[in-house]
Amino acid sequence: MGETLRTYEEINEKVKRGKAVVVTAEEAIGLVRQKGLERVAREVDVVTSGTFGIMCSSGAFLNVGHTKPRMKISEAFLNGVAAYGGLAAVDLYIGATQPAKDDPLNKVHPGEFKYGGAHVIADLVAGKDVHLEAFGYGTDCYPRRTLSTWIALKDLNQAYLYNPRNAYQNYNVAVNCSDRTLFTYMGVLLPNLGNAGFSSAGQLSPLLKDPYYRIIGIGTRIFLGGGTGYVSWQGTQHNPGVKRNEKGVPLSGAGTLAVAGDMKGMHSDWLWGVSLRGYGCSLALGIGVPIPVLDEETLNHCAIADEDILAPVIDYSDAYPNGTGEMLGYVSYAQLRTGRFTLAGKEIAASPLSSYSKAREIANILKSWIQAGSFQLSRPVALLPGPESGVIFRNLTERPANHHQTAIRR
Amino acid sequence: MTSSRKVVLRFPPQAANQPLVCELSLKFGLVFNILRASISPHREGLMLLEIVGEPDRQEEGLRYLADKGLGIEALSQDIRKIEERCFHCGACVGVCPTGALTCDRESYLVSFEEKQCIACEICILSCPTHAMEALI
Ligand code: SF4
Ligand code: SF4
Questions:
Q1: Which of B43, B89, B125 comes nearest A277 by C-beta?
Q2: ipTM of predicted complex
Q3: Are A284 and B125 within 8 A, CB to CB?
Q4: pLDDT at res. A194
Q5: pLDDT in tens, B67-79
Q6: Three-state DSSP class for A324?
Q7: What H or E segment, with its residue span, contains residue A361?
């Protein structure tokens, strides 16, 4: 691990006095190249990372307040988009990819998916009124059965994002080997390797700056949607045991984060409802994670650059939908950032689905917050499962209807 | 009576090097202006064409091109980029056939050069924020 250079307490003491030395991940890469790891590790206290991209596994818990007479909401629609009501009386969860109930979906392919859960969340954050229509079955304690009203973020008791899976550590590069255009969550993919879509912020992306989850853990305070949030758990499909290169960088999608944060502190610039043609709606979200330079190894990881990060190229006409696990090759983010790469002798235009310019902006905002003393670093209360944890990402093993086991008490 | 119309022609890679468009004047007596074109080997080519002539002859000419395997679409709109809706992801850049949409490799901001646009509308399909719009 090497010698400890500073502790969280020491860093926060400096943050409080406005004396912390903070650089963005991009700057850290340049500095380490220029001055060497040892020297920069002594000089820099914190490195900031950032990512801004489409993160489907996102959603929000809303407590809308009790009605008079009281009502146990079992079915709810926000601007016509279903929210989950199977919780206590007036707690709702709205998922980012939930389409509006009258959305034609893909009946005429590719569907437009103009408005959905992510747009509701974005409208709330923008301070807009959102229509709530709700139904309940009526109980002695919650007699009311129907409700139609307007809600706004400022009037809600609680409204917080709780995203089960964000900030994927590395991801696929999507291509299309078939002869028809595909409409995917990785964008429009033109036939015969006509283009490629990728989505990681690469060298700015939080978990690629901490490949072994030594720093980012449960309780890490982060930039979330323009406000403050926290890492709340390992993300769903967290898969730390994948193959890595000699720098420790996973060679495919690996770790993920579950994050939570108060929507009341968020800003529309960093949280957008988006529509992916033929696929569905989703949330484009900004996340930034500060990384305290506790030792040289931490900085060494922060200095991982786009050329060190390889992403697997996957055919979304077959290998992905059918889950064959087949891969066409690897390409580095440095190459992807040029806008073109070569696969099987063919030059392919590559375009991201996440915004590198916004990722950079987030790293800079987080840097300025820490420099100004308004954002303290938090020590995680528990780390995420690492490569040795045995945590793996399984596919579903389907079993015929009569092959169930009776529950075994453990 | 002569009239003029604008159409977008899509050339499959194998048709890119045939002088099909000239046939419009040779066979059908039409006058044409190539407004914008992007034809490169191994990729689908696109051409924005203005055709002037008798409407019936225009129809015949276009049918001839369609029979030769060209895709034909009417151009009735202009394309614009609504800046405040764009978060500069770049999804549109990789699908734009003419380079009208480009990403600056320093700032990573995406810009739209209308002069190069042939209104194929692929960017409208690929933009997740509805920032690219066709004006009817
Ligand atoms: S319509 Fe869009 S994709 Fe097509 S040429 Fe114009 S800018 Fe490019
Ligand atoms: S796809 Fe849309 S949001 Fe993304 S860069 Fe292009 S215009 Fe902007």
A1: B125
A2: 0.92
A3: no
A4: 95
A5: 888 888 876 568 9
A6: coil
A7: helix A356-371
